[in-house]
Backbone:
C-alpha cells in the first residue's frame, strides 16, 4: 500500500510544482513586460501599463505563496505507514470513490484506478478524518461507506 501512497504523493507534488512553475513564469513575464514598457508622450498609458503589470506580478506571487504552503503540507506527510483510521496521508476506499487525504489537487489515475486528492480541511476531508473501515457518512445526499483505510 505504501507504494500506492508514494505514487499519489508524487502526483500531488507534481501538481504543486506545475502551479509553482506557472506562477514563476507569470512573474517573469510581467516583470519583462514592465521593463520593456517605455515611457511615451502618453504618460498615463505608461503608468496604467506598469500598474497592470504590478497587479499581475502580485497575483502570481500570491499563487506562488499558496503553492509553497501546499508543498510544505505535502512534505509533512508520511507515505510509509498504514493507517487504521483516516488521517492525513491515508488512502480511503469508499463505495463512491477513492480518496487520498493530503491536499486538494483534483483527480489522479494511479494503477488504473481514480483517486481524488482532498484536503483534510475540505468538506469531504473533514468527514473522512478519523473514519475506519465500515464507517459511513452522508454528503450532499450521497451515502459513503468506508471500504478500507490504508
Residues:
Amino acid at each position: 500500500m505504501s507504494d500506492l501512497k508514494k505514487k499519489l504523493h508524487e502526483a500531488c507534488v507534481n501538481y504543486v510544482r506545475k502551479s509553482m512553475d506557472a506562477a514563476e513564469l507569470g512573474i517573469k513575464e510581467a516583470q519583462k513586460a514592465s521593463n520593456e514598457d517605455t515611457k511615451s508622450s502618453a504618460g498615463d498609458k505608461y503608468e496604467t501599463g506598469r500598474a497592470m503589470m504590478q497587479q499581475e506580478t502580485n497575483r502570481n506571487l500570491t499563487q506562488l505563496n499558496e503553492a509553497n504552503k501546499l508543498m510544505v503540507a505535502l512534505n509533512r506527510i508520511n507515505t510509509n505507514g498504514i493507517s487504521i483510521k483516516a488521517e492525513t496521508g491515508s488512502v480511503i476506499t469508499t463505495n463512491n470513490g477513492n480518496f487520498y487525504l493530503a491536499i486538494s489537487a483534483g483527480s489522479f489515475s494511479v494503477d488504473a484506478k481514480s483517486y481524488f486528492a482532498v484536503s483534510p480541511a475540505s468538506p469531504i476531508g473533514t468527514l473522512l478524518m478519523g473514519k475506519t473501515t465500515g464507517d459511513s457518512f452522508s454528503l450532499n445526499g450521497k451515502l459513503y461507506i468506508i471500504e478500507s483505510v490504508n
User: Anything to note?
Assistant: The chain has two domains: 2-75, 91-149. The mean pLDDT is 90. The CA atoms of residues 1 and 150 lie 7 Å apart.
